[in-house]
Amino acid sequence: MTRYLEDVRVGEEIPALVRRPSRLQLFRFSAVTWNAHRIHYDRDYAAEEGYADVLVQSHLHGCYLMDTLLAWAGAGAHVVAFGWRNAAVAVPGDTLTCTGRVVDVSSEGEVSCELEERNQRGELCAPATATVRLERRARGGGADG
Questions:
Q1: pLDDT (tens digit, 9 = 90+) per residue, 121-136?
Q2: Which of 33, 73, 102, 122 is least enclosed by beta carbons within 10 angstroms?
Q3: pTM to 2 decimal places
């Protein structure tokens, strides 16, 4: 689906995306990102560091937030800026819900959004900001388009 600039309004809610990471996903994510920190795949090591379980990687939080943005923005969107901050840890089995809203729509075609990821207890795991450039609807008829 393509989302067009003309259809976006300030205050529009970005639909929720829910993820429930597993130990296997964390292990695989560490492998494909060359992240050898044992805190993400070795439960005993994580316990030595004071955690109840292995931790969701900071970049996986970012991926979940980006997935939320792109699912809403559609195929024609171009990400201009994206940033997030990890505010709380998450572990396998947590239910992570990513949501967002539009905070600005520029006449140049850029849409600014605020996003957040919260766990099942409502704790903020990762806030984010993003800017996407959206296509305009084609103006119908004639050589001038």
A1: 999 999 999 999 999 9
A2: 122
A3: 0.91
Number of structural domains the chain divides into: 1
CATH number of the CATH domain containing 68: 3.10.129.10
Domain range for 85 is 5-133
- Cβ neighbour number for residue 132 with a 10 Å cutoff: 25
- Does residue 47 lie within any of the structural domains? yes
